[in-house]
């Protein structure tokens, strides 16, 4: 009985946690290094293993007096050619947000020569995976939830459990 209760608490928690998880994400390009040539960030490696979904944003933070954010095609990305950008996302503040609202490949470079130093980013934007099926049992019958939904929810429960552990430790 205690296990069931614990599971229910986790599941309830999981649903609360999963809602913002499933929504659009704003990616800080280069994480805390930003869009820069100073730290030798390899933006190919930064993007590796990340899943960019339609509806996400890229957030470029950089020195507005030096760099810029230009969207180019694949050829110009490879050649670091900034002569005919598809889109100039530079607003002048050094903080530019690019909506990834089409499922395709995007290519960004910084002009002014910085691309040659490594300031180039390619991201593959995917369609959002279908949302997990909401189980009608959740509201009604705990035994059914325990037996039937357990398989589906178990990874989530583990993830939440791990997050919870971390939370407890940080507390
Ligand atoms: C990119 O644009 C350049 C110049 O407009 C063009 O020569 C090149 O073929 C384009 N490459 C692709 C992959 O579309
Ligand atoms: C991009 O737009 C910014 C702001 O409007 C402008 O200052 C800059 O010259 C443009 N850069 C290019 C390469 O078009
Ligand atoms: C994507 O966002 C850009 C910039 O806000 C906008 O111009 C374009 O119409 C949008 N495209 C789609 C398919 O929503
Ligand atoms: C980034 O790393 C990849 C290998 O992970 C390498 O192929 C690529 O040339 C590097 N890019 C730059 C700009 O150094």
From TrEMBL:
This is Phytocyanin domain-containing protein. Residues 1-24 form the signal peptide. GO terms for molecular function: electron transfer activity. Belongs to the early nodulin-like (ENODL) family. Keywords: Disulfide bond, Glycoprotein, Signal. PROSITE patterns: PHYTOCYANIN. PANTHER family: BLUE COPPER PROTEIN, EARLY NODULIN-LIKE PROTEIN 17. Residues 25-127 form the Phytocyanin domain. It comes from Arachis hypogaea (Peanut).
């Amino acid at each position: 009985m205690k296990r069931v209760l614990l599971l229910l608490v986790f599941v309830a928690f999981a649903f609360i946690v999963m809602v913002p998880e499933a929504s659009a994400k704003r990616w800080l390009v280069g994480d805390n290094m930003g869009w820069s040539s100073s730290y030798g960030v390899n933006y190919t490696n930064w993007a590796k293993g990340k899943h960019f979904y339609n509806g996400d944003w890229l957030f470029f933070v950089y020195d507005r007096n030096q760099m810029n954010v230009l969207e180019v095609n694949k050829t110009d990305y490879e050649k670091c050619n900034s002569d005919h950008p598809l889109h100039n996302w530079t607003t002048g503040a050094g903080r530019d947000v690019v909506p990834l609202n089409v499922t395709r490949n995007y290519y960004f470079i910084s002009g002014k020569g910085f691309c040659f130093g490594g300031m180039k980013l390619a991201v593959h934007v995917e369609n959002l995976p279908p949302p997990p099926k909401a189980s009608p049992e959740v509201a009604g019958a705990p035994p059914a939830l325990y037996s039937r939904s357990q398989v589906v929810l178990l990874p989530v429960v583990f993830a939440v459990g791990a997050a919870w552990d971390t939370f407890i430790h940080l507390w």
